[in-house]
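Handover notes (outgoing to incoming on-call)

Open items:
1. RNA-binding protein, YhbY family: sequence verified, structure written out, both below. Nothing else pending on this one.
2. Nothing else urgent.
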Amino acid sequence: MPLKAACTCTEGGFSRTIAIFVSRGNCLKMSNTEPLLTKQEITELKARAHHLNPVVMVGQKGLTDAVIAETRQALHAHELIKVRVFGDDRMERIAICEALCAATGAQLVQHIGKLLVLFRRRTEDDADTAQ
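RNA-binding protein, YhbY family structure tokens:
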């Protein structure tokens, strides 16, 4: 079931409200209460992500449950990942980016063209299950 989202992405110290629209017309609102990254952290993460290759690809079927699950797994393993979003519609790519961030609890570090860089800090629970 593809997801579509409508919200604005803010980078800076502000919290944001994200609305995700499911194809049946249901709307789920989520607020991101986790503190956003500082400019210095974003710069450091961009430098770390420069050499990375995309580990998740969003194809023509859009944002599916399988893509979200794969993104969660990659974030669990690596914290910092690149995602490639295929498609020529820029607004659709932005909506997919925001829905993916909301669904996985990740923060957008960088969005250039069809590439996204996502970051989610490991929690203590994640560290315990990784070992």
